[in-house]
Amino acid sequence: MNAEFQKVFELTFSEKLQLVEDLWDSIASVPDQIPVLDWQKEELARRKAAYLQNPGSGSSWEVAKERIRGRQNDA
After folding, report:
1. How far apart are CA 20 and CA 25, in angstroms?
2. Mean pLDDT computed over 31-42
3. Rounded Cα–Cα distance for residues 2 and 41 (Å)
4. CA–CA separation, 34 vs 15, rounded Å?
5. Is 27 helix (H, G, I), strand (E, B) or coil?
6. pLDDT band for position 73 (50/70/90)?
7. Contact (CB, 8 A) for 57 and 51
8. How many CA atoms within 13 Å lie on the side-chain side of 64?
């Protein structure tokens, strides 16, 4: 482990969580630097083509959330 990062493990849980949030915000602020792999691009293209062939086949975000929440409640 890099000695420079050792102090991170000495932080409290709340401080670690805040650090993670701050790091994520920093990464999210430069979306053009986040790599998208070829297989991810291919999958997105496949899904878009499937949607364009049958726009009614998808679910709204609200329906999808309810379906996910239902699975969590069943577990």
Report:
1. 9
2. 96
3. 34
4. 25
5. helix
6. confident
7. yes
8. 5
